Amino acid sequence: MKNLNNPHNIILSIAIPTYNRAEILKKSLENYAKQVDKRTDVEIIILDNNSSDHTATIAKEFITKYKNIKYYRNEINIGAKNYVKALSLGNGLYLKLMNDNCLINPGAIELMIKIIKENIVTKTPLFIYQNSRFNSNCKLKISSLDTFVEQASYLITYNNNFGIWRDIFYQLKDKDRYSNVHWAQVDMTLRQVSLNNSILYFYDYFTAVETKNKAYNLFNLFGVEYFKLYTPYLKSNLLLKKTIRIEKFRLFRYFLLPWFIRIVVKRNNDLNFEISNVFRTLLINYKNKPYFYVYIAGAYLLNLKRILFKQNTRK
Q1: Domain check: are 239 and 182 in the same one?
Q2: Which of these, 119, 181, 301, 308, could form a disulfide with 225 (CB 3.0-4.6 Å)?
């Protein structure tokens, strides 16, 4: 008997928002097709944000061949609201957001289905994360927002780590309230975790291919806007200040600093990030952190040493 809340008996909907990356999308869909072909419990949702390239042509090739790959196109570009809309088109019991540049590892679909079925009765807020430097190949039962932030850290911002039960998705109001800063998925995660126990899985289930980005300020988005999401939880005592102090350090040490070295120190901005006022932007949250100045100075000194070493080897 079909579930009235899931008339298609679909367990997992994978939502892929895309814009003007036809060839990248093609590689991704070729990858998905190997694991979802002839499955009736999985669907792939493509939402084209009014691309001007041949994304529609690529997508139609796949929807003609695979019944569980579906394509939708916005009449106008709706920006980052495309993420929430893509999720809303899913019919599965569990909605999973994925970027168009991700290649699913062998067995990943089956693994996700297994995890979802294990939690299908209780529908405890469930998140399936890619392995990280903090956790790998494990299942964590989370009982507080502090614990979730400690374990997930800035990985909470990654689109590919977001998922939500369809029932919970439709219970949330104003899902687009942080779409203007690309953080709708983070907001929905925090709202779920702050009210309930949750389960966090870490596995090696996809590989992301580096691609050029629509120009945006990475340092402002992560170094400033990211922490604004935590403000209401700090004010309502659902989150400790200590947790955010630790998170600020980890974000800087393991995310912002490597990008700063690559883009600013080594001047390699091949991914097209907007980089005006980087130092001033970072000072907003790090001006009173001694480690900030130590790491930045160290980065420049190491780069100078590298340059001098290259010059000497050429003589």
Answers
A1: no
A2: 181
- Whole-number Å distance between alpha carbons of 112 and 100: 18
From residue 144, give the alpha-carbon distance in Å to each of 40, 45, 203, 292.
36, 32, 22, 29
| 191-226 pLDDT per residue, tens | 999 999 999 999 999 998 877 666 688 999 999 999
User: What local confidence, expressed as pLDDT, does residue 4 receive?
Assistant: 40
Q: Is 17 helix (H, G, I), strand (E, B) or coil?
A: strand
37 and 105 housed in the same domain:
yes
Q: Which of 6, 4, 15, 1 is CA-nearest to residue 184?
A: 15
Cα angle: 254, vertex 213, 86; to 5 degrees: 100
Q: What is the pLDDT of residue 247?
A: 98
Q: Which amino acid is at 198?
A: S
What is the 8-class DSSP label of residue 103? E
Residue 237's domain spans which residues? 218-314
Q: Are residues 186 and 272 in the same domain?
A: no
Q: Which two tokens stand for residue 3?
A: 């579930």
On whether residue 27 sits in a domain, the answer given is yes
